[in-house]
Design a protein that fits this description.
The chain has 15 helices and nine strands. A hairpin with a 5-residue loop joins strand 8 and strand 9. It is flat.
């Protein structure tokens, strides 16, 4: 049930539907008041706020047309922004805009306003006993609210279409994903120090995926409960974010009990058509890398955006470097080891972050300098055991510069950055001359 509720909440039309249903209820309530309590209105509502049926129909008809126009314009604007995200940033960043509740809240308010005014017109009849109705007043107030939301929407779009805002959101998204694993470390039933004590016995029962897609989320509580129920242990056979096919073995349950596959049930994990960053910081890093690659491509040629984004990568990598270098092992309340979960090593994350940036940015000294700055930021936040991995990646970037022809001042500029990183990680610096060819000599 949780899986289906998650899909419903992520649906584009979930928030607009809620606002539309609210507007239906609102129209029914005030139409009922107009039909049954018209005399009571005269006692409690100032006469100037009430209208006749004919005037109310005129007002609601105009508001209905205006709100439908605003709804169409808003939806068109949303589609333009989605196209911009896809073409200029990365197709993977579309979900960041689609998940923005403010966008769909505005669309829901406009749709709800149109539904309210239309239904109020439908329910309003010439045969209403009194001459005064309140539905038009509510329609006018609803229209004013729509105008406020429209102004907020324009400001929100103007701000979020800026690449710096997107980069900041991607960085926070990645840090939040790392925070998911940091929250695991705070659990009393979790350890990363007992890999040597992890032994498996009994028969192996595969826990497979029911559909093709990416492994998005894992429910640790359900896995611990399953392992405890069958007095066994569960090992994770892939990483969160991996693509799995139907019947691919995602987890393995080891137990001495005799089970059938039908007995291994439960919402243990979620497989979807797209990767999800909530438990997958590597995907957040990938999206940021794609924004940088798009920025330094010949078609866009915006190296300053790439530089800013690469600097933000240093923050995210620094957070990731603090995660344990061993597997996450979860225990039950009896301190019995139950679930073993693996994450990508920091060395792997560093390589997959910079191997494309190194390749496509090796001829731009500003991009190379940004990469070294990013590694310096990460090293400043990372523990001692991760600094060696950072220095190895810096040497890997320098290897890609072999036979590059940079001018003297370029070398001086980059050499200072390398020296700073070497000093921070406790390594001896290297001379750029061994990686470059100087045609002037």
């Amino acid at each position: 049930m949780d899986r289906y509720w998650l899909k419903i909440k992520e649906s584009i039309w979930f928030i607009p539907t809620l606002y539309s249903l609210f507007s239906v209820v609102l129209a029914i309530i005030f139409s009922t008041i107009d039909h049954l309590f018209d005399q009571t209105l005269l006692l409690y509502v100032p006469h100037v706020l009430l209208t006749t049926v004919d005037l109310a129909q005129t007002i609601l008809g105009g508001l209905s047309a205006a709100l439908l126009t605003m709804t169409t314009f808003t939806f068109s604007t949303i589609m333009v922004v989605l196209t911009t995200y896809s073409s200029q940033f990365s197709p993977r960043t579309l979900k960041n805009f689609v998940r923005d509740p403010m966008v769909w809240r505005v669309l829901g308010v406009f749709m709800g306003g149109f539904i309210y005014t239309t239904l109020s017109l439908l329910f309003m009849q010439e045969s209403i006993a009194g001459e005064s109705v309140i539905s038009s007043l509510i329609g006018v107030l609803y229209a004013m609210i729509c105008l406020i939301f429209f102004a907020v929407f324009i400001h929100h779009i103007a701000r979020n279409i800026q690449v710096n805002t997107l980069i900041e959101k991607l960085t926070i998204e990645g840090i939040d994903a790392v925070g998911c694993y940091e929250a695991f470390l705070k659990r009393e039933d979790m350890t990363t120090q007992t890999n040597d004590n992890w032994t498996i016995r009994g028969t192996a029962y595969p826990i497979t995926a029911r559909r093709d897609g990416y492994l998005q989320l894992v429910d640790i509580e359900q896995l611990i409960a399953l392992a405890q129920k069958h007095k066994g242990k569960i090992e994770m056979n892939c990483y969160i974010g991996d693509f799995v096919q139907e019947k691919t073995q995602v987890f393995t349950l080891y137990t001495k009990e005799q089970l059938t596959l039908q007995e291994i049930v439960g919402n243990l994990f979620v497989v979807g058509g797209e990767r999800d960053t909530r438990q997958d910081p590597v995907f957040a890093i990938q999206k940021m890398v794609e924004v940088s690659l798009r920025a330094i491509s010949p078609g866009i040629n915006d190296p300053n955006t790439a530089i800013h984004n690469i600097h933000q990568l240093g923050r995210l990598l620094g957070s990731y470097s603090r995660l344990p270098r061993r597997d996450f092992i979860f225990m039950d309340e009896d301190k019995q080891l139950r679930v073993k979960m693996s994450i990508h090593t920091f060395e792997e994350v560093l390589y997959h972050t910079f191997h494309q940036l190194r390749h496509y940015g090796k001829s731009d000294i500003s991009v190379l300098g940004a990469i070294t700055d990013s590694l310096t930021m990460a090293a400043d936040l990372s523990p001692l055991e991760s600094k060696k991995d950072i220095w190895l990646i810096q040497l890997y970037v320098l290897e890609g510069m072999e036979n590059s022809d940079f001018q003297t001042l370029d070398r001086v500029f980059y050499q200072k950055k390398i020296d700073k990183l070497a000093n921070l990680v406790g390594e001896g610096s290297v001379d750029l001359k061994i990686f470059m060819t100087d045609e002037s000599n």
